[in-house]
Amino acid sequence: MTDTIRAGVIGFGLAGRIFHAAVIHATPGLELAAxxxxxxxxxxxxxxxxxxxxxxxxxxxxxxxxxxxVGTPSSSHFEVAEQCLRADRDVVIDKPFALTSDDAAQLIxxxxxxxxLLTAYQNRRWDGDFKTVExxxxxxxxxxxxxxxxxxxxxxxxxxxxxxxxxxGPGGGTLFDxxxxxxxxxxxxxxxPEKIFASVRIDRDNGVVDDVFDITLFYKRLTxxxxxxxxxxxxxxxxxxxxxxxxxxKFGLDPQEDQLKGGILFDAPGFGQEPEEAWGKLxxxxxxxxxVETEVGDYRGIYANVRDALLxxxxxxxxxxxxxRTTRLIELARESSSEGRVLPVDLSNKP
Length: 351
Fold this sequence. Notes:
Gfo/Idh/MocA_oxidoreduct; 6-stranded parallel sheet; nucleotide binding
């Protein structure tokens, strides 16, 4: 008997191709057994040894496939995940986990009823820069943290109106796309905030869906600022941390996404590593700024954890209740932006 878990990926766009198929294929103990691509032959060319299905039903008919990754457009996440859970499969949903907290809660209850694993693909917990921030906070070098800033800024002045993320349809926009990650990272580091204030808006001339957000999370003695923009040409810090004993500033984005898009795979020398000039800097009183080596990122970590959770060897790192919490914060951010006021964060009704 083997412990290898056969997995299928639904969707072969950016998410399915780069963040699921490639990562599953590279994770020991998982077998990429099938991919659903309704039309086209890109999946067959990329993975000639893998079964290509033209429908979800065709995939689910193969009862040897236990784990399903949902990499479809965001508007279909709930429907597809529900179908897979009802077929008694374990499910990883790409972000956003769901478009509403009610839908997220419904999926969680269904997974419990069916006794299936359910999680959100929060791969950016395995970014090297985020792992470095975690290590910095654990070290205590900064003293008591008072300010945390997390930015994911890009310069894309022209909307890609042909793509579902920017054409105005449900599930599109920067808040769902990047807010899902930045909120999850903040909640992972600091837990539930007391209050939230947000501005979610369209900055681009031809934009039809939100392309920038500024979110402020208020804790008892800490304020966290989260921002993503499509109109930031000048490079800015990815993370900025200020504490009672010093500061840490980190520029640049984790290299894994660009490496995978460029065909550089996990076993390539230097994968996930940053050059020294990209390392963050630690600023302490009475000392010269010191470069801090960036931890090596590895997106295989999330699927390795899913594998181990399925085998009863580890606790699931990204619990579905955490995905519900992130979804609820996205709803509160939109509400705060619409009403122009600070809102209390009450998460007592979690599923």
